[in-house]
Design brief:
The complex is a heterodimer of chains A (115) and B (112). Chain A has 115 residues and is mostly beta strands. Chain A is 0% helix and 50% strand. In chain A, a hairpin with a 2-residue loop joins strand 7 and strand 8 (62-65). The N and C termini of chain A lie far apart (41 Å). The relative contact order of chain A is 0.33. Chain B has no helices and eleven strands. In chain B, a hairpin with a 2-residue loop joins strand 5 (44-50) and strand 6. The chains are: A mainly beta (115), B mainly beta (112). The A-B interface holds A 4, 36, 41-46, 49, 89, 91, 97, 100-108 and B 4, 31, 33, 35, 40-45, 48, 50, 55-56, 91, 93, 95, 98, 100-101, 103-106.
Chain lengths: 115, 112
Amino acid sequence: GNSVTQMEGPVTLSEEAFLTINCTYTATGYPSLFWYVQYPGEGLQLLLKATKADDKGSNKGFEATYRKETTSFHLEKGSVQVSDSAVYFCALSDRDGGSNYKLTFGKGTLLTVNP
Amino acid sequence: DTGVSQNPRHKITKRGQNVTFRCDPISEHNRLYWYRQTLGQGPEFLTYFQNEAQLEKSRLLSDRFSAERPKGSFSTLEIQRTEQGDSAMYLCASRQGQALPFFGQGTRLTVV
């Protein structure tokens, strides 16, 4: 079955520091990969996605590259802000187009950015 | 309608009681999902509807859980004879066609 393993948190950084959150996956077939963010008291929001090998998803200064050879999708940001404090989830879905698009999530990584 | 709406946002119930949550998807979204998120874990898939048909159920969905989507619009998730292990955030998501799903803010259930 599908599974996602992401770096355990919590991660605490100072503002403007470099961020990396590691994510690796196991999947049958050729999944699509996602990063979701959950701010305190809110639902999940899609941060970025990639649907095929070597694709780079990017949004709000965050980036992640779909690496099929290492089955990884690490999240990076060059300079974090206090407002980036949230829980980040790596996820995958079956990429068969007509599927139910069921998502498999990692456990989440809590990021705290201090001023 | 600007998003997926879930009610109530918070529910505290005594062990053994029944609870029901509601999800109103984005208008015209024909696909609807329920996920459960326990503390320190990522969301886990529970069940999926396409219109009014429930097409998939996770083995996490025990006999005490039932979900419906009458007329293919809003959905309800009922838990009978709640247990402390049912305490979690219950998330609903909806999507249309091949678009990515949108998530609601969730219903946080606490069983005491």
